[in-house]
Design goal:
The chain is α/β, with parallel strands linked by helices. Helix content is 19%, strand content 21%. It has three domains: 152 residues, UDP N-Acetylglucosamine Acyltransferase, domain 1, CATH 2.160.10; 34 residues, no CATH class; 40 residues, no CATH class. It contains five helices and 18 strands. The longest helix is centred in the N-terminal third of the chain and has 16 residues. The protein is globular, with a radius of gyration of 20 Å. The termini are far apart.
Length: 229
């Protein structure tokens, strides 16, 4: 049995099972080399491009994940665009009190194939508000290429994370952040417009409504006015 588990056949059978379990009937497109686990869920109409890895995460309706991204323990909202080589939920190592940063002394996960620990002595992840997720990403969020997002982070609706940013603290709704560490540059819209968008929640509309009103998305003020938002 152990021999079977160590073969490529077992790996492909397991991935086939995960794809059927998580994606069947939801119009989810998976590229070559994509890796999933049994705890990942898709809301539907999603795409995950080649060599991306998604573990223990929820991917909202219409959201796509680009090439080579590594997403773990993350809840992502609807209509998000996740760029190439994005890493989300990196885990943490101790930097105070504990003598060593190596998990063999405090973890049962055997990252190096072994452990000295008999019980978990240090939590390697920071979870958001007691949820099973280490990162919570809102709706209509664009994350550029090569972004790193650390544990315990919440990214608000409509935010934009610039390419190469390192996100070490939470990001407000409709904020644009850049740099390492990422810092707020400006908001996408005026304060009043943001409040109206957050109240209207267009991302919760039925796809048929969105298909009918898609031209209004070309102008924020037209959108808000014509929808009495």
């Amino acid at each position: 049995m152990d021999f079977i588990k160590n073969t490529a056949i077992y790996y492909y059978l397991k991935q086939f099972y995960f794809r059927m379990k998580n994606c069947y009937g939801k119009n989810v497109i998976l590229g070559k080399g994509v890796e999933l686990d049994s705890k990942t869920r898709f809301e539907g109409n999603n795409a995950v491009y080649k060599n991306a890895k998604i573990k223990s995460s929820f991917i909202g309706y219409g959201t796509y994940v680009a090439n080579g991204s590594n997403i773990s323990r993350t809840k992502i909202g609807r209509y998000c665009a996740i760029g190439d080589n994005v890493s989300i939920s990196l885990g943490i190592h101790p930097s105070k009190k504990l003598v060593s940063i190596h998990p063999a002394f405090f973890s049962l996960n055997k990252q190096s194939g072994f452990t000295y620990a008999k019980e978990t002595l240090f939590d390697e992840h920071i979870y958001v508000n007691g949820s099973p997720y280490c990162v919570n990403i809102g709706n209509d969020v664009w994350i550029g290429n090569n972004v790193l997002i650390f544990d315990g982070i919440t990214i608000g609706n409509g935010a934009i994370i610039g390419a190469g940013a390192i996100v070490t603290k939470s990001v407000e709704d409709y904020s644009i952040v850049l740099g390492a560490p990422a810092k707020h540059v400006r908001y996408r819209f005026a304060d009043d417009q943001i409040k109206r968008l957050l109240k209207f929640k267009w991302w919760d509309k039925d796809p048929s409504w969105l298909a009918t009103h898609y031209r209004q998305f070309m102008d924020i003020e037209q959108f808000l006015t014509e929808n009495n938002a």
